[in-house]
Specification:
489 residues, Leucine-rich Repeat Variant, mainly alpha, 2 strands, 25 helices, 70% helix
């Protein structure tokens, strides 16, 4: 009698052979010379075979991935949105479900994904054409909708409306595949290398341009026109520019960046967060990105948004993590701007000099309740001082209870964001005033004790914290020390 293990192996081998036979038959029916109905049925069969973790792995293990990718390339060139959507299914399955994102690490495949991002411009159907049928009373489009609803919409929290529209479905599937191909959320060294290799090919494959264009088409005055697609675009662009200066500089040449801050200032919080994460990457190492983000009133919109949201954080407690996070992203972006571009730093300094000149003597940041709004004449200097003061009070309270460690800071999301809030406010304020005696005096009059001691204390504590967790490079440590020297002097 055969063992259970042997019987299981025989069964698996039989299933794999059956899978390969079905795939081979379907692959033969998706060619451009086939009739529309045959091609739709064959493409649908391929999608059903591979759109699961097991199916995608079988495609890889049976050596069928190159043929599936070739089929997807041909289907993506079709005018029929159903065929384009099935192409998206194949690429998403192999790139995100199959456990081997390496299949997307090719300029040709990335180019196909970039082409699918144009699918939202196509017409959902062509008048006068017969609808392809798979079974009596059930057409391919209905089966495709059901497949995407069960295997993509629910696991990926994708809106059902995207599955109902084949053209938008193709866009959504392409974005999911690109997100998987460029992800930085991995602890695997090999996956990080793969993600870096993919990023190198995005510009040449037209993916960056297509993604940016899709995002531009979704920009709205009160929010993204299609929030899910717009936020996925922002995520792909964020991934693509993470530690990649070339991609950041390419995107800095597009008008998109100049519109994100001016339009995004009125978006819902989650959409603002997605835009700011992308902008932080674009402005991280390049002055070109800073200038592009701040053109057309972008710098004014950035400061106004910070003033509007920043004044709400000083009195927040444990429930304020999300608000702190958004303000910290704004602070990070402002730090990039003043650090990387002298002209923008000068523009910001001019704004602050007017505020310093009008600053009344003795108007300490501690004179108001920490929860009071910073809208009654308080400008950028005053708000930064208030954030430092509020953070200082929280830090002194924690010290009175027990020593603050890195583990404690990360225990509470709100506490961690509050700590960063104070540190970022100190760094930005330091950059703004370090070379201007008049603004130093104005800030000293606002801070507690009418001195810069609390600013220096915040910068020193942040420097010590970064060193303790080994989260600072030699260059960053040297820059922070230079800033401290200038402020003390």
């Amino acid at each position: 009698m055969q063992s259970a293990a042997t019987l299981h192996e025989v069964q698996e081998t039989g299933e794999a052979m059956c899978f390969a036979d079905d795939a081979d038959f379907a692959l033969g029916g998706v060619g451009e010379g086939m009739g529309r109905g045959v091609r739709r049925r064959s493409a649908m069969k391929l999608a059903e075979l591979c759109l699961s973790h097991r199916g995608a792995r079988l495609v890889q293990s049976q050596g069928l991935a190159p043929r599936f990718l070739t089929a997807a390339s041909g289907l993506a060139r079709a005018a029929d949105p159903v065929l384009r959507s099935t192409a998206g299914c194949l690429l998403y399955a192999l790139g995100a479900l199959g456990g081997d994102r390496g299949c997307l690490n090719a300029g040709e495949v990335l180019g196909v994904l970039g082409g699918l991002l144009e699918s939202d411009r196509s017409v959902a159907g062509e008048a006068g054409e017969p609808r392809g049928r798979t079974l009596p009373g059930q057409d391919v489009e209905a089966r495709l909708r059901k497949l995407v609803l069960s295997r993509v919409v629910q696991p990926c929290s994708m809106p059902e409306a995207l599955a109902e529209d084949a053209a938008l479905g193709a866009v959504a599937l392409a974005l999911l595949a690109l997100e998987a191909a460029t992800t930085t959320a991995t602890s695997s060294a090999s996956a990080a290398v793969l993600s870096g290799e993919v990023k190198e090919k995005l510009e040449g494959a037209g993916v960056l341009e297509a993604t940016a264009a899709l995002l531009e088409r979704n920009l709205g005055e009160r929010g993204l026109k299609n929030s899910w697609i717009g936020m996925k675009c922002l995520k792909v662009l964020e991934n693509s520019t993470f530690l990649h200066q070339g991609n950041a500089e390419f995107l800095a040449k597009r008008p998109l960046l100049g519109r994100l801050l001016t339009v995004g200032a009125r978006w819902p919080r989650e959409e603002q967060k997605a835009a700011l994460l992308f902008l932080l990457n674009v402005t991280h190492e390049t002055a070109t990105g800073c200038r592009a983000a701040c053109t057309g009133g972008g710098l004014t919109a950035l400061v106004d948004l910070f003033l509007r949201l920043g004044g709400q954080t000083a009195g927040l407690g444990e429930d304020g993590a999300h608000e702190y996070e958004l303000v910290n992203l704004l602070l990070g972006l402002l730090i990039n701007v003043v650090e990387k571009d002298e002209d923008l730093r000068s523009d910001l300094a001019v704004l602050c000099r007017h505020e310093a000149a009008a600053s009344p003597r003795g108007a300490s940041a501690g004179d108001q309740s920490p929860a009071a709004p910073c809208t009654d004449g308080g400008g950028l200097l005053y708000l930064l001082c208030r954030l430092i003061f509020a953070g200082q009070r929280a830090a002194h309270k924690a010290k009175a209870e027990e020593e603050v460690t890195a583990d404690m800071v990360t225990t509470s999301e709100a506490k961690g964001e509050s700590t960063i809030n104070r540190a970022y406010a100190s760094i930005l304020l330091g950059f703004i005033i370090c070379d201007d005696a008049q603004m130093k005096d104005a800030v000293a009059r606002i801070l507690p004790g009418e001195s810069l001691d609390s600013l220096v204390e915040a910068l020193e504590e942040f420097s010590q914290f970064l060193n303790s967790v080994h989260a600072v490079t030699d260059g960053q440590a040297a820059a922070l020390n230079r800033l401290l020297v200038k402020i003390r002097g």
